[in-house]
Fold these 3 entries.
Entry 1:
Amino acid sequence: MYAAIAERDRSFVGVFYVAVKTTGIFCRPGCPARVPKRENVEFFAEPREAMLAGYRPCLRCKPLERVAETPGWVGRALALVESSPDARVTEYDLRKSGVSPERLRRWFQQNHGMTFQAYQRGSRLGQAFRKIQDGSSVIETATLSGWDSTSGFREAFQQAFGTSPSRADGPVFTVQRIESPLGPLVAVADDACLYLLEFSDRRMMQTQMKTLQSRYGCSFVPGPTSVLKETSDQLSRYFAGSLRSFDLPLDHKGTEFQEAVWRRLVQIPYGETVSYGSLAKELGRPDAQRAVGKANGDNRLAIVVPCHRVVASDGSLHGYGGGLWRKQRLLELERGQLTLL
């Protein structure tokens, strides 16, 4: 990684961040600032980690700003998958396209929490799931999806979906990682609705995913959908300060009380806050402040359903699953006190 810093190799942008002990600043790879000595640097996977370690973002390369595009060499690999969604892209195919399989694997691990091979395997399984639901036979689907044997296909399918392909009758939800200036988010959607949007480092993430599986009987695969693309686009505009109200198709089922709280959250104006106590009174349950707080914590749609706009009665910040520092930044953004993009 230090070689990438010394050579100012921008192809590593998004793979890691470098912090300089002598200046207290962290940067992206490729920053035009003076190259530090090896003994004075340490590396981080996310800007948040560098900030929590006491480093300030560089004013030249601006590591908190979102990278506008996926690196071109990653785009070439994704194009191979998209051009032949049922085929398996091999390391030979990648090298032939000028892409290093090792670098691609590291980039996918950092940005998506999985290897490129796992990404395309999940994508192929998702396609296979839909074919079986549409009436294709298991043998035909395994062959067309690039598996060498039906048994190998059945095993991969069982591991991914928790069921055999002959019993594939539940919905498929697509999972995508969305970069943001406050850290990566995980979004879950199908072709109709957004079901989850949460910061990837939140402890409740696994619980939220299990809740979706229990409620909808769904399975998860990686890949894009039109809803996820629109979610990413609207988030970009929000963080740029040009979007004040989201317009996304949401599926946000919960208990009757939770849904009442979540509906009220969406009504809180951009840049304003309400207290837990006042929200409880509006719902006709003035003694239910703790229940309101718990419903806030159970909200599966961060930012879009703005639970960050609920504060303590004295105006202090309290109880945000994504971290109080993010709650502070979101409110500063909405009040025009902070520029993130």
Entry 2:
Amino acid sequence: MLTTPVIRAIRRARPGAHLSYLVEPQAAPVVSGNPNLDEVIVTPLLRGAARLREDASLALRLRRSRFDAVIDFHGGPRSSLLALATGARERVGYTIAGRGWMYTTRVPRPRGHRRRHSVENQWDLAEALLPELGRPTPANDPVEMFEDADAGRRIEARCLALGVDPAHELIVMHVGAGNEFRRWPEASFAAVAAGLASGRPNRRIILTTGPAQAPMADDVRRIALGLGAEAGAISVACDLGLDELRGLVARARLFIGGDSGPAHVAATTATPMVVLFGPTTPSVWGPWRGAGAATETVDAGELACRPCDQRVCEPGDFRCLRGISPGTVMAAAARAMARGLASGADPL
């Protein structure tokens, strides 16, 4: 997602170029409808001998395509090897120990925390190839994901099946996280869900997660019902693809979630957002969208251990996330929705 501003910029700088994007299936919906790309190459993520065969076949395909230049935004072992395999005259990647030699142009990426957005780090790679790009701004080069018509129809049908029609005020809460460092407690999400639903008979809340975290969403709903929320006001959808998630958020009045991929998907819409930050910081990972978009970021404030490398919680109590109160998130939600109404941002 955070490479999509670069795609737009490269197309602007080279309108006649043929731009191909190599991606694995899970992330393919992010770029598959991007009008600035001529080709999206989707490669499966396999294991063992099957992966070796796939990568050999893919390497041959890339070599035969005779690319003039390759930018490796990922920097992992597989992507750097495939960049080398293209045989492109110009290959741009980060300075990485043991793999930097695979690139013809290497861009330093200092270790440790810098108050610099990840989009700008990605931009450095493209700027090394095209110095005329200048510097990015969220207003001129936002993150982008274009709605797929089929996904839109699936989401409309799903909403109706959940009892949510266009007349309802919809809120999407992404309550799952595979990483404990990004996981706000279920009880806290439930308190917010119950509070947002209280006294609002026309409001509907859909809780989303990835399939592996579906039990978390079920727990949030159960706790929220125990706090007095009406059963019909809160539903669960944990099997959405990224294209469907974007379609759902685009139809909502508000998105609430932690610093995760779904938050960056939500940032491609006009929907007001509240994003919770624990060990990470908004200066690096905040929603990359124009100032006119209603965006609230929430954290526990200054902590000696924050940001961290998300391997071991030094205090042991995950205070960076658990220190965020439901009341703080409720207040941020009210501000975001008010800004959204004032700006005239309407869901699809």
Entry 3:
Amino acid sequence: MFFLMTTFFTEVRQTLVPRGEVKHGPLPPLLVAMTLVTGLVDAFSYLVLGHVFVANMTGNVVFLAFALAGASGFSILASLVALCSFVLGSLGGGLLGSRLGEHRGRLLSVAAALQTLLLSTAAVLAALSGNLVPTGVSYGLIIVLGIAMGLQNATARKLAVPDLTTTVLTLTIVGISADSHLVGGSGSRAGRRLIAVAAMLVGALLGSLLIFHVSIVSPLVIALIVMASIAGTARVLSRTDPAWVRAS
């Protein structure tokens, strides 16, 4: 038990403060920050724009099915717009990955900078709308945020840091149990995986509290500040061409 706890806290520390990490360098904490952004943005989209996600497409597919079945509170059009926007952002992220993927620091900094611009646009639209977002503006926000999150997911996929996809947590949660030494697995990396789950939870909780008690635009402002910080950090830390930028 002591060994397992020591391993757990070591994994947490290495994920948040990767000292001496050669293969992935500072990418793990930066991707954890992007996972926090996912929680913030999806809290905004679900609570402000109706029952729609702009990052978690698994939920969106389910919402689309609910809407097709005639369930109240769900929109076929909103779900389809979110899905198509996410695909468009993923295509853009794939294009960036093809051109910049050989230098992971440059890829992350450029993608995060583009996301910052998209999140800034969304924040301006939300701020101009007030607390009641008109239908037309709502769809504009879904498009902008869906593109931003598709771009983020494609970038995270290209960076290929294990267990830090920034959005998909189902397999992450399964891995905590299924890969555990307790069931004869090779090791669940529970420390890193739980950090990812916690980041999403904290982002969604913070986003919800801000919407309920401050303003609807607050989660987007926090998200764009975090994303801008990621872009700047990735750019600065990769200038000297360290080993992690070209790690496979």
